[in-house]
Design goal:
heterodimer; A: 1% strand; B: two-stranded antiparallel ribbon; 71% helix
Chain lengths: 313, 681
Amino acid sequence: MIVILAKSGLQLLLLLLVAPLVTGIIRTLKARLQTRRGPGILQPYRDLFKLLRKGMVIPDTASWIFSAAPYMVFVTATLVGLMIPMIATDAPLSLFGGVLAVIYLLALGRFFLALGGLDTGSSFGGLGSSREMTISAIAEPAMMLAIFTVALGANSTNLSEMARSAVSQSWRFLAPSQMLAFSGLFIVLIAETGRIPVDNPATHLELTMIHEAMILEYSGPYLALLEWGASIKQLVLMTLLVNTFFPFSLSPNWTVSGLGLGLLFYLLKLLLLACCIVLVETTNAKMRLFRVPELLAVAFILGALALISTFIF
Amino acid sequence: MSQIFISQAFLGGMILYAAGGLFGLIAARQRNLVRIVACALAALGAVLEGVASITVIRDVHETVISIPSGTFFLPFTFRLDPLSSYFNLALAVVGLAVSIYSFGYLKGFDSRKPVGVFCFFYCLLLISMTAVFTAANAVVFLISWELMALAAYFLVSFDHERDETRRAGTLFFIMSHAGTGALLVAFLLLGTWAGSLDFSAFHIASQTLTPVLRGSLFLLFFLGFGVKAGMIPVHVWLPAAHPAAPSNVSALMSAILIKTGIYGIMRVSFDLLGIPPLWWGLLVLAAGTASAILGVLYALIEPDLKRMLAYSTIENSGIILMALGAAMVFRSYDRPVLAAVALAACLFHIFNHAVFKSLLFLSAGAVVHATETRNMERLGGLIRRMPLTALCFLVGAIAISGLPPLNGFVSEWLTYQALLGGFGSTLSLTRIVFPIAGSLLALTGALAAACFVRAFGIGFLALPRSSQASHAHEAHPSMLVGMGALATLCIALGLGATLWIPFLDPLVNQLVSIKVSGSLVLASGVVLSSGSPKGGTVAPAVLAGALVLLTLLPGVLLAVWWRRGHRGPGPTWDCGLPGLTEVNEYTATAFSKPLRMIFAAFYQPRREIQTEFEVSAYYPTSVRFESGVEHAFETHLYSPLKERILARASRLRAIQAGSIHAYLAYIFITLILLLLFGVRS
């Protein structure tokens, strides 16, 4: 019990600290690729710090759901973070929920976020909620197929088991099924974290925004929680991707040296994935909303091919 | 001792139901008295039935109760085995909550409405459903089945002044009888083969059936029961009938009446017809998947709150059938452990759906009662006027969307595990079916979440969209008690899933002769596992605890960092217009628009805009907007069928000339033919 709490505390700290960093790195890299200076890697921390101290305005049409949503988003994202192996193969809470619980907990956060968007009574909130639920709904089967491929390979939906089985055969990521599943999940990652070409995290243009439209009425500490929750969710999904497909150097136990090495490699892997995301973001234009289903259909087909290729290879 | 106790409780419950119904007829004029006494008797009856069912399942006491019938050729025999008691328990739980709710709900009936008659049919529905679940021979089963359909018909048509309601009632009646026709043929065929109409005789006789006969019997049963289960494409009656009925009846119908079909399919394919061949399971799985997806797609675009819930019932029926189909496939592959896991998922979801769907219908009933409209576009802002009803609806919405840590999540999780396990059950190409079904289940789940965000967000949040909604009032206390009990049960079944699974052991054991709780519940007692040694695990209670604990983190953060006094209400950003009103809000139709466009091939949406203007099209004087979708099954399957039947029927008019002589002749000829037939055989 105490061991679990200690591990959770450590991973929680890592989660809370690394998440804004990843957002900052992605923003800076993107700026550099577009030959801008950009605000600096630590800007997200400054933003959070500032927002947490600001006052806030609650729309007078809103009910308690509006206030509950930021908490739910933040809490579900952090809980999910504790169920995913980050630097050691056995995640603190992996016994209490596997990959299915991860997906459904994130859905719980999204459920409340979408309600929060609708609660304001403005068209923007409803518009954002509607689009968010739509895109997540059509991303879901693709995500599940890709994850099933991995889970069936590992014979488990428990994330620590999956990581352990992947560590034991470290070149497995070269198998066609794994590569196909990875590509499928990468597309889903782009969609779920609201990145170009699906959504643009830097825009407040009513025709295009999705996530930003939902949180338009939030300000101050609530906005901080939402932003922080979103970056934690992004970190969690990125971790899921790097650690289930490329589990090198995941520490098999919670010793200091193992964790140190694990952390180093983990950050490196994240950096690589962040570079991929940045490349995708800079080389693509934002899609029209109704082109997104086609993109996600590609992800679904990749997932299905991954599954079928497990028969062949 | 125990058997006597069980039969006393069971019969006592039935008698109390009957007493409630008869009292309704006798004291029909004393509206208040009838309401209180009949509801109390029904609630007490439900308690007794619940006690009897729990005892049967817990002590695994199969109890046979036989009431000799003077005139019929078979006695009224009821057999309470774990399977029938489980369904009876679900009925008792929902029946209790609905009866308590009805205290307050019936009070709101128009004074011209016959409350006594309503109570009579309500109690008749309870009795007949209990009898359907526990019938031990085909005659009792069919009689109860017909009584159930009849009681449900009268309850659906209760608001018969409306055209729409009458049509819904008729449609229900016709579809129900088409189903019963299939069942009748199947039972008679089986009865002739077995030489008896007793269920236990069927079980023995099924081992000697030829594959063709066995297959066609299954198809007949599947069709007949599928109609009641709301399976697509024989679902058409459901979205018409459930919203038309008074809300307490809708709850009972969606939660339990649907389950009589599921019960029938389970009874037939696991008991009466022996071990199923592979294609039965695959057929059930395919039908379940189709119902789940199409059901939720229809639910998504429905602006009528109750009709949306009815479509969502089709979806959940589909999920149950998916798990059931998987269990049948595993059984034919001789994989008892997997079959047991799939059955546990199926049984769990049956109970869960009964609880959260009745909760949602009761909450919707409270809303309709308070606002007199079922149209989501005219609701809104109810969370302020009716906070407790809104809370109950929210709990139901989270549960039905399969979100942790509530009960819907646990049963869907088990379904996923069963489907994933199915991939390893065989080496043939068939196994690809399971992950595909799993991903479609994921799509269903996500669409259901979108559907209930829409229902709750549009119906309960933000500004009221009509004057009725802005003058809504909180429901009667007894209605809140009924809903609150079900909402608590949603939470309890989710958090206490590991305690509930062992309760399913006797049922699973009865159906596939293996116990499942040992491998599903890990030693610590809070962790639910997928049944295989290193498979998936989940602990809803721990997740809930962790969610609460983690809430402390932002709570403390805000308390420390945030300077107090800076929080204040302000208007929502209105783009500089003078104030935000309800017309600025996003509508339910708009909310589902992206999905309507993405699935346009399925919906075939159409829209008509007529603009009238005087000077320029940019300054219209009036705009008329109409949009809709095509209900493919109604237009392409049922309408042509109806046309054809009516055309044939009009030809039959020739022999119905209205002449009494001709009719006498018909009777005479029929009599002669029957006599000849009788003499010959």
